[in-house]
Each structure stands twice: as C-alpha cells, then as structure tokens.
From TrEMBL:
Cell membrane recorded as keyword: no
InterPro entries the UniProt entry points to: Endonuclease-V (IPR007581)
Enzyme class: hydrolase
GO MF, any single term: deoxyribonuclease V activity
CDD domains noted in UniProt: Endonuclease_V (cd06559)
Site residues, Interaction with target DNA: 106
Annotated positions binding Mg(2+): 68, 136
Localization in the cell: Cytoplasm
Annotated protein name in UniProt: Endonuclease V
Cofactor dependency: Mg(2+)
Catalytic activity: Endonucleolytic cleavage at apurinic or apyrimidinic sites to products with a 5'-phosphate
Lineage of source species: Bacteria, Pseudomonadati, Pseudomonadota, Gammaproteobacteria, Enterobacterales
Function: DNA repair enzyme involved in the repair of deaminated bases. Selectively cleaves double-stranded DNA at the second phosphodiester bond 3' to a deoxyinosine leaving behind the intact lesion on the nicked DNA.
EC number in record: 3.1.21.7
Gene: nfi
Length: 256
C-alpha cells in the first residue's frame, strides 16, 4: 500500500496492512500459476535423478556442505544459508547467506520451486566447492520423488542428500528409542528413504537420496557427520547460520 495512505494508521495497523497485502499478492500469484505444469515438471525431472553413487567407495571428500532455507518478512523474502565444513574435522570453513524475493506462495509438494532460487544465489557466492551437500528437506522422499535435495542437486550437479525433520509421504514401522534405530520409509511399495533415530528423546530424521548417491551411502555420510546432536553437522550449521542461533554467534565472536 502507498506510504501516503499508511501514514494515517498506527505502526501496529500498518504492519497488519502490509502483511495482508503481502498475503494478497502471493495468493494472486498462486491464482496465475499453472501448478499442474509444475507437478509435471517434477515428475519429468525426477527421472533425471541419479540414485546410485557416482563417487567411488574409496573417495573421501574435502568439503561437505549443509543447506537450509527459511522465510522472512511474512514469507515475501526467501533466505538460504549454505555452510561448508572441512571433512573429516567437520570444522566450519565458509558460509554464505542469500536473500531473494519469494517467487512462489506456499504450495504443499512444490516447495522446491519456492526455495531453489535463494539456494542458487548462496551457492554462487561460495569460493569453495563442496563435494557433497546435505539439504534440510526431502530428496526422493516426495510424492513425485523430487524434493528440494533432488531439485538442487540436479541444478548444481553435485551429490546431495535429503535430511528432513518430518515426513512428507510414505509409511514406516515404529522406530526404536535407541540411537541408531532405523526403519525403511515406504511409499506405494517403493523404499524412498530411511527413518533414523539420531539422538535419544528426539524425533527421528528422514534420510533420502538427493542426487548421485545411494540410500546406503546417504545414511553412511549422515552418520559420519554426527557429533552428538540431533542433526548432522552440515545441516546443523546451516540451520544455525540461517537462524543466527546462539552457538553460531558465539563461534563468530571467538573468531574475532
């Protein structure tokens, strides 16, 4: 809404009006979208996802990255963070944050189209090139087998793994309470991931193929990147950077 008209309202009222306008324009965008075409694109691109290891069993990466996406300004700004860790020390060596105007409203099953522009912007800023990326989200554990980990992996042509905190589709047997307990995630008779207890008294993680990695290797790399927290270090750092969490702020202060 024009600033001249907003001046007659209180700050609280102006914030409410701006939020409603943002939601209105996102809904308007949704009404103009051909969501059927986007779903068709997902189905077609899912066929291009490589579900086996392209790296040899003896390969040891130098850098492993984590990627996380969030939203600001009532969803009108997409924020992506990529954290690059040295392997096997898992020490943070580089990170980038990108903020882009949100190009798509929230549509279940189509989140990758909403998230990947900011991820690509953050990726383009990196001076180091990761050998493997763990993405906070689904890979092939998606109704059309094309979540953000697969979408991003295909775009940047790098092995990726989906590390999600919740289930999007599929069913699984109860996961034991012990750390390391695991169950296959099955959807329409196909295994699309693993449900893995990474820490006691925490909900399990949903691990899936992103691109250019097998499910066994995906699980193995996640295990190699654990340091006692619920999340593997790459996505834990990406989440911490994106959300400016206390451990990230403390790390930055120590480096000054």
């Amino acid at each position: 809404m024009p600033e001249l008209l907003l001046k007659q309202y209180t700050d609280c009222q102006r914030n409410t009006i701006n939020r409603l306008y943002a939601q209105y324009f996102l809904c308007l965008t949704l009404s103009m979208l051909n969501t059927k075409a986007l779903r068709k694109e997902q189905t077609e691109k899912a066929q291009l996802v490589i579900r086996h290891d392209v790296l040899s069993a003896s390969f040891r990466p130098e850098f492993i990255a984590g990627a996380d996406v969030g939203f600001e300004e009532n969803g009108t700004i997409t924020r992506a963070a990529i954290a690059v860790l040295h392997y096997p020390s898992l020490e943070l060596v580089e990170y980038k944050i990108a903020r882009e105007g949100t190009v798509l409203p929230y549509i279940p099953g189509l989140l990758s189209f909403r998230e990947y522009p900011a991820l690509l912007a953050a990726w383009s800023q990196l001076t180091l090139r990761p050998d493997l990326v763990m993405v906070d989200g689904q890979g092939i554990a998606h109704p059309r087998r094309f979540g953000i980990a697969s979408h991003f992996g295909l775009l940047v042509d790098v092995p990726t793994i989906g590390v999600a905190k919740s289930r999007l589709c599929g069913e699984h047997a109860p996961v034991g309470e012990e750390v390391g307990s695991c169950q296959p995630l099955i959807d329409h008779g196909e295994q699309i991931g693993l449900v893995w207890r990474s820490k006691k008294r925490c909900n399990p993680l949903y691990i899936s193929i992103g691109h250019k990695v097998s499910i066994d290797s995906a699980m193995g790399w996640v295990e190699h990147c654990m340091k006692g927290y619920k999340l593997p270090e790459p996505t834990r750092w990406a989440d911490g950077i994106a959300s400016n969490r206390a451990f990230f702020r403390q790390t930055m202060q120590k480096s000054l």
